[in-house]
From TrEMBL:
Record Gene3D superfamilies: P-loop containing nucleotide triphosphate hydrolases (3.40.50.300)
Keyword Transport: yes
Taxonomic source organism: Allorhizobium terrae
UniProt keyword terms in alphabetical order: Amino-acid transport, ATP-binding, Nucleotide-binding, Transport
Protein known as: ABC transporter ATP-binding protein
Domain ABC transporter span(s) in chain numbering: 7-239
Lineage: Bacteria, Pseudomonadati, Pseudomonadota, Alphaproteobacteria, Hyphomicrobiales
């Protein structure tokens, strides 16, 4: 699958002031894959997601998306290349209704597909259909996560970036969200790159994964290989 990379992150370095948060990170996501990035708090996972989206920008290295060099592109143009993100903390619009939040995700380019896309999202997350007139801020954590993913999908992305979709959610809700991600991948062919602290759930879901420690990728392999790896088990899976 080497020639089928949708996203190529090559030797990327990202700084906050003088602090190097990413130190030569290289990852690839092939078309149709679910790839996850696991690692402890502060490893740099969210920074990688944000760097892919252009804020902060990489100070060194390259990010190629679908053949286009997006390393120095402003964020709004990166979004137009059809990378959509469900960020850490979900960042839905709390005062807007579920429907209005979804409308915001569509942008002007996709309004012609609006009804079709809304129906797909309501089929995937029937709870959002029931709550379509409710304000985002009054939804439960799991419903907000569904809305955040739904809003990202309204942009018709080629690549969906998910930052900690399981954060703060009960195991049963996490299971439902992860099943929805799997379904999108299997039925729609959606390519997904996700960051997770819930390593077990992420590795089970993923075709491949990367482990990040202190701003560097230290290990990679198939989800199955990493689930079975003694080092990964000791650091991220046992006692968690
Ligand atoms: P978490 O799961 O806790 O979000 P993470 O792996 O996503 O962890 P990052 O949030 O990417 O890690 O943080 C990587 C490093 O960069 C940390 O040392 C963090 O303190 C630092 N950092 C993150 N955001 C900023 C910022 N805006 N300004 C300065 N330093 C930052």
């Amino acid at each position: 699958m080497a020639g089928d990379a949708l996203l190529k992150v090559q030797s990327v370095e990202t700084f906050y002031g003088n602090i190097r948060a990413l130190d030569g990170v290289s990852v690839e996501v092939n078309r149709g894959e679910i790839v996850s990035l696991i690692g402890a708090n502060g490893a740099g996972k969210s920074t990688l997601m944000m760097t892919i989206c252009g804020s902060p920008q990489a100070r060194a290295g390259k990010i190629i998306f679908d053949g286009v060099d997006i390393t120095k592109m402003p964020t709004h143009l990166i979004a137009r290349e059809r990378i959509a993100q469900s960020p850490e903390g979900r960042r839905i619009f709390p005062r807007m209704t579920v429907m209005e939040n979804l409308q915001m995700g569509a942008g002007l380019d996709n309004l012609k597909y609006f009804h079709e896309d809304i129906e797909k999202i309501f089929t995937l997350f029937p709870r959002l259909k029931e709550r379509q007139s409710q304000r985002g801020g009054t939804l439960s954590g799991g419903e907000q996560q569904m809305l955040s993913i739904g809003r990202a999908l309204m942009a018709r992305p080629k690549l969906l970036l998910l930052d900690e979709p399981s954060l703060g959610l009960a195991p049963l809700i996490v299971k439902g969200i992860f099943e929805a991600i799997k379904k999108l991948n299997q039925e729609e062919g959606l390519t997904v790159f996700l960051v997770e602290q819930n390593a077990f759930a992420a590795l089970k879901l993923s075709d491949r994964a990367y482990v990040m420690v202190n701003g560097r990728v230290t290990m990679s392999g198939s989800g199955k290989e990493l689930l079975a790896d003694p080092q990964v088990r000791a650091a991220y899976l046992e006692g968690g």
